[in-house]
Write a structure and sequence with these properties.
Blueprint (H helix, E strand, L loop, with lengths): L2 H11 L6 H36 L5 H13 L13 E7 L2 E6 L2 H13 L8 E7 L8 E7 L4 E12 L11
Antiparallel strand pairs: 1-2, 1-5, 3-4, 4-5
Amino acid sequence: MSRHVIELALARYYRRDTDPQVSAARLLAEYDADRAQLEQAAVEARAVLAALCHDLDDPGTAALGALYLLQQVTVGTPMQPGEAVPIVYRASHESIPMGLYTNRAAARAQCEAEERRTWSKGTALTFTWTPDDSDPLSPEELSVVEGPDEESMTGYVVTPVTVASEYDPEADE
């Protein structure tokens, strides 16, 4: 609801007052102050919840849903100092994206399920995830071992992707 609509409604409601504009202005000032307090609380909650979700391997759908709602109601407000940047995990095969997930385990599960479908039922498979390097945000590739045979790379990759809050024209260069 726009502030202008609220202002008109207040002016009509208080039209019998000796000075309806003063009554409306006072209430609008209280509304603005309350809204600013609520917005600040939502921004602080968003920062805390984003940090929590970032630290946990699987924060759960309730926490992620709450974070999504807080991000929606605080659109346009800058990130707080120390607020974690959201990360999603992209499952892909041979560079073809298959899905985005809020946690690494779900992206891995999709890749493993897809690879398992290429083998005969009942085949004993062992899956291993190999990171590109020691950085926790580096992509991981799935390898499979069938019984005592050698390990082979599958082409399935889970890549952590940082979600940007703003467009950076220099990032594409």
